[in-house]
Amino acid sequence: MKPDILRVHPDRMTAEIDVRVPGTYVVSEGKVEFFPIPETGYGSQVVKWHQGKWQETEGTTKYR
Q1: Which of 22, 31, 59, 63 is most buried, by the most CB atoms less than 10 A from its CB?
Q2: Per-residue pLDDT, 4
Q3: What is d(CA 34, CA 11) in angstroms, rounded to the nearest whole number?
Q4: Predicted confidence (pLDDT) per residue in 28-47, tens digit
Q5: Exposed, middle or buried, 38 (CB in 10 Å: 0-12/13-18/19+)?
Q6: Rounded distance between C-alpha atoms, residue 39 and residue 30, angstroms
């Protein structure tokens, strides 16, 4: 489930998010990207940066 950004304030370059939705939020170049938790609830997420900019996100899922 991708949450909605509740409110964007472009004049202040801020955004409000729903903190009740678990996941990873990446802020880069004025944009907010959301990556949900693994479907099983177990796993990891790695955010890769290059020269100060977000490049990619890798995720793994573990089954228990």
Answers
A1: 59
A2: 66
A3: 22
A4: 888 888 888 888 989 999 99
A5: middle
A6: 28
What does the alpha-carbon distance between residue 5 and residue 19 come to, in Å, rounded to a whole number?
10
Strand partners, 27: 32
Could you give the count of Cα atoms lying within 13 Å of 33 in the half-sphere of its Cβ?
11
Average pLDDT, whole number, for the chain?
86
- Cβ within 8 Å of residue 9, ≥6 positions away: 15
Tokens of 53: 């900019």
Amino acid at 30: G
